[in-house]
Amino acid sequence: MYIRLVQRMHSRAREALNQHRLDKAAETDALVETLHNVSLAYKADGDANDRLQAIGAVIGHQIDSIIEKCEKHSLLAGNNYLPLLPKFYKGQRAVFLSFFESVDLVSTSQDQAVISAMKFVIEHKNNRSEWLPAPRDLDLSFISDTWMSMITGKKNSNALFDKVHRRNFELCVFTQAMNELKSGDLCIPLSDKYRDYRDQLISWDEYEKGIGLFAEQAGIEVDAKLFSEKLRKELNAAAHKADRGFLDNEYLVIENGEPTLKRLTASQKPPGLESFEATVKQYMKENDVLNILWETDQWLNWTKHFGPISGLDTKIENPQERYVITSFCYGCNLGPTQTARSVKILDRRQISFINQRHVTEQKLNEAIVTVINAYRDFPLQRLWGLGKSASADGTKWDLYPQNLMSEYHIRYGGYGGIGYYLVADSYIALFSRFSTCGSWEGHYILDFVTENNSEVQPDIVHSDTQGQSAPIFGLANLVGIQLMPRIRNWKDLHFYRADPDIRYEHIDELFTEQIDWTLIETMLPDMLRVALSVKAGKITPSSILRRLATYSRKNKLYFAFRELGRVIRTKFLLQYMSDIEIRRMISVATNKSERFNQFADFLLFGGKGMIAENVRDEQRKVIKYNHLVANLVILHTLVTMSEALRKMVEHGHSIDQDALACFSPYQTEHINRFGEYELKSRQETAPMESAMNITFLDDVMVPSGF
Q1: Do the beta carbons of residue 593 and residue 423 sit within 8 Å?
Q2: In angstroms, rounded to a whole number, what is the distance separating the alpha carbons of residues 314 and 122?
Q3: Euclidean distance between CA atoms 396 and 403, whole angstroms
Q4: Is residue 488 a contact partner of residue 565, using CB atoms and an 8 Å limit?
Q5: What radius of gyration do the chain's Cα atoms show?
Q6: Would the pLDDT of 211 be above 50?
Q7: Residue 492, burial from CB neighbour count under 10 angstroms (0-12, 13-18, 19+)
Q8: Which residues contact 393 (CB under 8 A, 6 or more apart)?
Q9: Does residue 333 contact residue 622 with C-beta atoms inside 8 Å?
Q10: How far is residue 198's CA from residue 340's CA, in Å, rounded to a whole number?
Q11: Whole-prediction pTM value?
Q12: H or E, element range at 132
């Protein structure tokens, strides 16, 4: 919450800067016009005195006003919103100071500058002076040049100072503490998310015992020199291949060092696809969501994973029915009250009891694994994919703005959280996670390595821009995952040379940076230790990526993973722009995850798609419920479609496998989301006149006649 409050303060300051620019647009235009007139006056014919008089005529008595406006404008120039932070600091100071006093923050390196600054802030918390005397040992090495001028009043960062601006210094320290908590430069001992990540890694003795087998399975060289040499050769080979194929690549154009890829032509659909699809749908049996869940439980008994959490609770009657109804309730976001009105078997308290006392996030994961493993055995799904690749994508779930987990999402618009899913190439969802809108989605893209216990284990992962960064590329490579994302504005990324002396005939101007191979070689054991810890389940990839994907000036491991990721990402970008089939494959894969998001949203028809839960654990469970329900409906659709194909064959229809390969289990026409409700046509209806015969006496409603 401390991090979120500081981030929100900065976000509001950025918004205030944008609004300030809009409000001052006319004033800025007037200053530009004045500058234009001064320039014309200076350029006019005549000697220096004539020019000076002409300039004076333009400026006139406005000189002081112009200087004042220019100085105010320069304070916020270059997107510098920091001077606007104090406006949103009021009311937050006590909370931030309380956090510093209550939480034991520890530096994970020998650099104690931020810790010392925090102690200085706490010591002067009751001081209301604008300026505070600065002790000689106050280390401001962590402060940027922008902050320095606001804190010391001196634009030269190397200048001596004897005092600091109290309020600006506090804001700077609070901001730096937030950044270092995110990057791992500060930690909270014994905490979960923010403890020192090094304590979660395997020991060096365990590393020495396991590195040989790990390297053999992953195909990685343990020797630092051999590792970097292999990478260097692969990067150079990818560059030479792209260079040789440049003239024959009709989709790639390079102008002024900027690559541009032409839009892919659409793949041809098999002839007769639409008519064949319509025929298949005619043979598919209609059903409602509740009974779909019931039938799948008869097949798989996925509700066996649910049960009393403590093991001491009294057994319940008809547990299968209650578990299915509860999954329907939360997976479709109906809520206990509405579900009890529609399904008369249970009341709302019984449904809530099952959710709270019999279902956990872990139990939902186990049920999801059961569905995935059953889905894997069907022949039809193999036409769509073999489970060797998967795609990740996030979608916004609506939350109430007052919810502590809720944030405003710029891309999606509105308040909520992000449901993040990994969808196999055969359309079944393997993994789900719920996070805040402000988090980088790619932090969770590799968590399936430790959390996906199903028999479907992809080694190629696709995503969009949010699913990648240089450190993510680096870690994915070491844990044996080939990351192949669809990156927006990929041409703005740097291409890195394998060797500074190598030149390429056609694509040489693309390469603008060089790889620091020495850093990779030096830090290779530390990076492999992280990879082994992930494989051993000691730490989740998201735990380490939250730190490695956040810039840190102290953490050498961050720079090493970033450098390794630059090699892997450059190699991928060279393949991406050279091979049209890779582009098509990525496009098809990412479309599958986007379609799953739409399908999951189709099943989230209750509550207007708004998660009403205010507890973070319950919000995560709703995501898992919806994931489970979506997978169950996908499995049921696969069975229904297989049965429809069998009937078509019996009736003399021919089955076109090419057309069938274009299908997906995300069919909705045969699904009745809202179920069947009994119409009480024989029940006597009370006349509406009784509602008309009321009067109000002294603000009290009474029936007429009393």
Answers
A1: yes
A2: 53
A3: 15
A4: no
A5: 32
A6: yes
A7: exposed
A8: 420, 421, 423, 463, 464, 467, 590, 593, 594, 596, 597
A9: yes
A10: 49
A11: 0.78
A12: strand 131-133
